[in-house]
Design goal:
- This protein is of the alpha+beta class and 223 residues long.
- Helices cover 52% and strands 13% of the residues.
- The relative contact order is 0.14.
Length: 223
Amino acid sequence: MEDLKIDPSILPTPIRAALEALGNEVVTLRQRIEQLSVQLNAAEALADYDPLCPVFNRRAFIRELDREIAVSARYKTPLSVLYIDLDRFKQINDICGHARGDQILVDLARQLLSAVRRSDIVGRLGGDEFAITLPRAGPDAAGRKAVALMLDIEANMRQSAAPSGHALDIGASCGVATWRPGEGSETLLKRADADMFRIKSKRRGQRSPGQDQPPGSADTHTA
């Protein structure tokens, strides 16, 4: 009744009791609304993340990529995307089982997070495919980052071994695409995906990504 600026002493007892009960209900409802708001914020945060790996899911990654594109368009700064796909990943499930395959994906996600800047965004697009945004990075810098990641991922995978003693001969192909004015996130990702497949086709039968044409070089000179 203080909020209503009413002196309870001037009210009849039944009305005062009714107003006090109503006030208590309002307080309870406010507390419940605050609890629901906290729960909703937590649920929204969880909805952004991949159910297996500690990175954004595809929906959240696309949303963040759209934001980065808007920043690049406004301030005329470069923006590149890396598209990463594991090579010969099927043998992990065949030799070690799906649980081991899941752990490999989690380890890869953590490796990617540790290898990027705080401003970069890592997302799992599905299966063994991941993507990274590189704000303020042009094709040359992004290409160097892609090669470094391929080498690091392959080195880390070689350190793992299957229970049967077979080495896990797993690597990664990493494509690059640099944003073009007027281009949307899906088109940018498709170009990075296409570059990844170009790299993967060149890597088949090879073991050193350094022998390949640098990632992103296919469209470096395109408009």
